[in-house]
């Protein structure tokens, strides 16, 4: 799949995902903005590395506070 103007995001995420794990990364943005597609590209490019990815689709939940989000 061809990406247009997403190289910077893909490279940033690849670098971030290879750092010592001490945080959780949340990728968020407008609906249908390409979040999943970009992350799938990152996962594909890092498939040879010993990295485990978790994916949670929170689209069906409408949360307005951090507490609500953490409860999900």
Description:
The chain has helices at 7-17, 35-45, 66-71. The chain has 72 residues and is mainly alpha-helical. It is globular, with a radius of gyration of 14 Å. The model has no long low-confidence stretch (mean pLDDT 83). The protein is 39% helix and 0% strand. It has one domain (7-71).
Strands, total number: 0
Mean pLDDT: 83
Helicity level: 25-40%
What Rg is obtained from the alpha carbons, in whole angstroms?
14 Å
H/E element sequence: HHH
Q: What is the count of helical runs?
A: 3
Distance between the termini: 32 Å
The residue ranges in which pLDDT falls below 50 over 5 or more consecutive positions are none
- Work out the count of structural domains: 1
Brief description of this entry?
By secondary structure, the protein is mostly helical.
Write out key terms for the chains shown.
72 residues, mainly alpha
What is the topology?
Blueprint: H1 7-17, H2 35-45, H3 66-71
